[in-house]
Amino acid sequence: MSGNQEVNYALDFRAGKPCDRKPREVEVAGCSIPRIARLMALAIRFEGLLREKKIQDYADLARRGRVTRARMTQIMKLLHLAPDIQEQILFLSNIHGLNERNLRPVVRQIEWDQQRRMFQKIMDRLDRAGDSS
For 21-75, how does the pLDDT look when each residue is reduced to its tens digit (9 = 90+)? Predict the structure, then answer.
């Protein structure tokens, strides 16, 4: 991942029934950005807003985003991933099945080397599942 790349997109935090909330693909320069990459970028952006004291806390973020505090915490925990995993997530092509939920066990692991092994296992499993489709 060399060079500086910046991606800007509009974010819609609309509340609605779960059936109304279909994952939307965001396109930038003809490429779709996976939902997990968008969540990772949001977590990084939100952390910056917290550091700059533009947002008070996670509860404030959740209120403004019209999501639960628990959901905001799940998103923000992506920042506990090793930096190289975060970078991989930000620049991944769309891998079917890679989502925040299946990264939760990785996020809970403190040791970055263990995180890397767990993440690689997930990626290998999803890659094999994609090959068999």
Answer: 444 445 555 567 899 999 999 999 999 999 999 999 999 999 999 999 999 999 9
DSSP H or E segment with residue 33: strand 31-33
Strands (E), 19-108: 26-28, 31-33
Residues 115/82, Cβ–Cβ less than 8 Å: yes
Biggest distance spanned by C-alpha atoms of the chain: 48
Report pLDDT for 95.
78
Rounded to a whole number of angstroms, the CA Rg of the chain reads 15
Q: How far is CA 92 from CA 84, 100, 121, in A?
A: 12, 14, 16
Please, which residues bridge with residue 31 across strands? Answer: 28
Q: Are 49 and 23 in contact (CB under 8 A)?
A: no
Q: Can you tell me which residue has the tokens 């925990």?
A: 77
Give the residue from 3, 76, 2, 84 showing the smallest Cα distance to 40: 76
Using alpha carbons, list the distances in angstroms from residue 116 to 67, 109, 123, 127: 29, 10, 10, 16
